[in-house]
Amino acid sequence: MEPLKKLEKAKNPKKNASKLSKLLFWYLNKFFVKGYREDLELSDLFETLEEHSSFKLSSDLKREIERRRDKDDSEHKPNALISFVLAKKTLIVFLGSISRAERNSGWLPHRLLRSW
User: Fold this and answer.
1) Is the dihedral of CA 87, 92, 95, 101 positive or negative?
2) 3-state secondary structure (DSSP) of residue 46
3) Which among 87, 90, 95 is positioned nearest to 114, based on CA atoms?
4) For 21, which of 17, 61, 93, 107 could close a Cys bridge (C-beta 3.0–4.6 Å)?
5) Distance in angstroms (rounded) separating the CA atoms of residues 5 and 14
6) Does residue 90 sit in the same domain as residue 66?
7) How far are the Cα atoms of 24, 31, 32 from residue 20, in angstroms, in the given order?
8) How far apart are CA 70 and CA 68, in angstroms?
9) What is the structure's pLDDT at 27?
């Protein structure tokens, strides 16, 4: 097996984008146009920003887990009934949105909703 070679990636345009450009995602216009006109390749992707690196994200997650573990457990115990009801309502809303989109097709997920 050959070792994977590191791809040369273009600098991430978000680094130098203005606040307005970030707000409107304007810095991605060239990328979207290229993807519209032709298939994108791995070399078309941008380098990862430092704040999105797996090392930083994993250390942030570890720190947050430790912070929550250190807090008093009685304050943050999840209520099983509330969790169940929220999960069921989320599923119903999701299936309902699919149902409206797919009502004219052969698959009818709104029948699933009526069974709940």
Assistant:
1) negative
2) strand
3) 95
4) 17
5) 25
6) no
7) 6, 18, 18
8) 5
9) 86
For the chain, the distance separating the N- and C-terminal CA atoms, rounded to the nearest angstrom, is 52
- Residue 103, pLDDT > 60, answer no
pLDDT reading at 7 higher than 70: no
CB 13 within 8 Å of CB 27: yes
Two tokens, residue 56: 């930083």
> Does residue 109 sit in the same domain as residue 61?
no
**What is the 8-class DSSP label of residue 10?**
B
Which among 73, 72, 89 has a CA at the least distance from the CA of 81?
89
CA–CA separation, 81 and 87 (whole Å): 10
Length of the chain in terms of residues written: 116
- Is the model's pLDDT at 14 over the cut of 60? yes
Supply the pLDDT for residue 95. 64
- Domain span at 98: 78-116
- Condensed to tens digits (0 to 9), the pLDDT of residues 49-69 reads 888 888 888 888 888 888 877
Pair (99, 66) in one structural domain: no
The answer on 18 and 66 residing in a single domain is: yes
